[in-house]
């Protein structure tokens, strides 16, 4: 019983304990609530672009479009790719040339479905809904142009088959994102515990009187954290490799490295400010969950307030996931060098900033007083 009293006194005598127990959870709930509220306010926005310019096609598509009055489905122009990249549309349905003629002749027709890289989870959900709807309507009167003109019912007209660009399978859309999230989580959690143990055992004070240089000590901590998190990312990549993610191997490896560098530095920054394992673990876990929200995998980014979306442009995990999705959905040519260099510059700047601050903080603790 005495040990329990001593342990409770030791913990609650520190002001930081109350910050960890009360302030951080409240902040986490408030910030997390912003992201989760975006799910409730999400409105699916699907654009329709017709390459079939014949009068009969305009009439047929116009009749079908007239059935949707809620703003979910809308006409778009040739700039629909830019709208998808900005997240203003969750998906675009492209009606190809000869679509109406195919319906009249009773042939199997196809409609191209192009998802957005911003809220891919909503795009995937919409794709599955449309695909099932088309399957259920196949053979019925809905897609029979004679019904649209003469209310004539026939069971011989198949519904259009919904296809994606480059035969994209949504089952593997999220694989690259998960690879980066695993790398991020490992780097952050390991980094958050780097200096805490040395502080608690007073080993960090030994560095100041030993022969080892502090810069070597600090650099070894950082490099080990980077190496372990990179290995975890590579293992995750090898696990997903058979699924054919439609992403360049070099691009995945580079983004794994950048993800590891930044989040290792962030974890070390947390460790440099933490006095014990309790604080470092809670801060590391809270940051990990918050960054998962920010990545755009679980939440609708386009429905967040504009100032939050502008802030996400400086969050490396969001930018890295976005670049992978761009390449996966639109091909390697969609990721230009300017976008990649901008992401690299943000990561490099933040990584150096966290490392410099961490170095100075830990260095001060090793300096004899």
From TrEMBL:
Superkingdom classification of source: Bacteria
InterPro entries named in the record:
ABC-2_transporter_component (IPR051449), ABC2_TM (IPR013525)
Q: Which GO terms describe its cellular component?
A: plasma membrane
The record's subcellular location field reads: Cell membrane
Q: Domain named ABC-2 type transporter transmembrane: which ranges?
A: 16-361
Q: What is the predominant subcellular site recorded for this chain?
A: membrane
The molecule here is called: ABC-2 type transport system permease protein
Q: What is the species of this protein?
A: Fervidobacterium gondwanense DSM 13020
Recall the taxonomic lineage recorded for the source organism: Bacteria, Thermotogati, Thermotogota, Thermotogae, Thermotogales
